[in-house]
Amino acid sequence: MIQPTEASSMANTGSGTTDYRTLMSKALLELKDMRSKLAASEAKKTEPIAVVGLGCRFPGGGNQPDDFWTLLREGKDGITEVPRDRWNLDTFYHPDPDAPGKIVSRYGGFLDQQLDQFDAEFFGITPREAASLDPQQRLLLEVSWEALEHAGIAPAQLSGSPTGVFVGICSNDYSQKLLNRDVTAIDAYLATGNCHSVAAGRLSYGLGLQGPSLAVDTACSSSLVAVHLAVQHLRAGECNLALVGGVNALLSPEFSVNFSRAHMLAADGRCKTFDAAANGYVRAEGCGIVCLKRLSDAEAAGDRILAVIRGSAINQDGASSGLTVPNGPAQQAVIRQALAQGNLSPHQVSYIEAHGTGTQLGDPIEVGALAAVFGPERSPENPLIVGSLKTNIGHSEGAAGIAGLIKVILALQHGEIPPHLHFSQPSPHMPWAELPLTVPTQVMPWPTVNGRRIAGVSSFGFSGTNAHIVVEAGPEQSPIASAPTAQARPLHVMTLSAKTPAALTALADCHARHWAQCPDADIANICFSANTGRSHFKHRLSVVAASTQQLQEMLTAYTQDQAPVGIHQTQVAVESPQIAFLFTGQGAQFAGMGRSLYDTQPIFRQALDRCDAILQAYLGRSLLSVLHPSNVEDEALIDQTAYTQPALFAVEYALTKLWQAWGVRPNVVMGHSIGEYVAAHQAGVFSLADGLKLIAARGRLMQALPKDGAMVVVASSEDQVASLIQPYADEVSIAAINGPGNVVISGRQEPVAVIAAQLNDRGIKTKALQVSHAFHSPLMAPILSE
Length: 786
Description:
The protein is of the alpha/beta class. Helices cover about 40% and strands about 15% of the residues. It has an eleven-stranded mixed beta sheet, sandwiched between helices. The longest helix is centred in the N-terminal third of the chain and has 32 residues.
């Protein structure tokens, strides 16, 4: 017979029942907590990723996001003949694609800047090292910096942060050029200047980033694969910010000869994607970078969210009919995977940015895959809209995927789909009847599906690696409203800086020309972004203006070597100067002091209100009624010592809080007379409440003394003044030493007047101060015991 244990026998008692219920309740709470943590962990695996910044260089003048959008919206063609600084057209062109050593096309998508135009000094790179630096690395440095500034992130602030770098790159034209020289020309920088791994590593090194840093080469899908990897690393918590993109530069003709012999290139240099005349693609170069954050982090930081990545996926063609032949089922699978990761269904997607090279083999396979995924849930009234950036700028290979993503982000921002070029007759090789599909040949409004705008971006490498990204329009964001009682700030300060005087002038000119086109832009936002969203260098310019129009006019004047009031230019020796706050003493007060700041600056107002609340018990009236009197009779209160001293303390405290809110924080605090008490509070000597209590008692006691004192400023040395006041040591003292030749004496009126007369007889200037008492003198002694 099994005897019951103590625990089991307890279960039959009232106490045991209570213990059992407690244990069960605790177990249920722990189970609930575990489920909550598991759900949070699962949610992180699919957390949306916010795009918070863009940078780009693309053919046709797409050198920044606004210019790139103009190119797209206006349906511009960015294709040109091969520039003379790349290779000799006459030497390599031949109309026969089978001609050995020749290229069937005279065209390409080229940047409008010379690739040797690189500000090496800005990035701390010597001219010797820059000569061996692949132009692709140069572009990545420049565009990444611009993308961070576009995101409102000062690059210098990222040093030491877990920021990741993911770069798609697959061409090596420059290293071939360098290796074709005599081996004696090889220097110490050849490897670091041209290895793909260093293209990512140099960004991390230059900015001090300590997150994942890697280069990706999957041929044409490289940069979109980089985006997918960045999304995964962000969700895994391995980085909090990611710089992601791709780059391609066409410097040598050899690969163009290869693609020509493979019959991949269009003789007319145009990607005629989906058109019956499609006969190949045109090669292009470019660079694009996006800044990515987890959506929750971006929202918490108040970032401008340009778009949201909902899902991403990559896969491989595996065995197909040829190494470089696309695989339709694999394309279908990668799209379905990306949709599933974003918890989306095909009918929610309204636009697809296709890979779309414009080949008779690739286009039908891609459209067939789209038909399989999106066709079953479409109708002629709800067609899938499909376009391809390659019809504008060509196939930028390692940068093609990021170029397509940036196009979609810009289109989502503007709520419009730009035209797809070179499409006049649908290709007879595609199953148009199976898929209600439309190719936009004019700019069109982006339709919503249940209030949402969602797109897919595809990129397929000839290596067989496929990538697909699902992107949604960013959330509607409203500017932060001002406090209900706040008035508009009367003036704003905009700061600009550069590493050289010429660069500073160029930056000012860039701003002047831009804001001339946007005179109604919010000057507060302009100044905030310029002041906080950029790194600051030693050549600095500040502009004080009331409006965007005035700001533009003053910047224009500066670039024309004029110096209007409100513009200040300087050069600083260090980028992080040591800052000291000096708090003034009695005599600086006046009725109405701080009124504009109180009305317009919430931080200043909150600080002053806090002081007012503390001082009510000591002053017997509101401090605000002393500072900002409502009638003439009360205007004299500010000069009564009992009120003057607490008022100065409160205003100086509020000013300090305001400067600190603007990011200006002191390394050292100093005080003069009353200011010593504010400085002591800032240094942590006593609390705000104790400091105000002390200064209120000090002012009250001093005002109770007889008004028979005087204070005089003397333009002389301490030693000379000390000898003159020696006979009156019991009644006069040196109150302050302002400098080697500026001293203040304080004491009883009669001896102070005698000393001042003696000084004047010697030709030494003096000036009486308007004070009620002889502060910092023996006349203060009667209050010490109390």
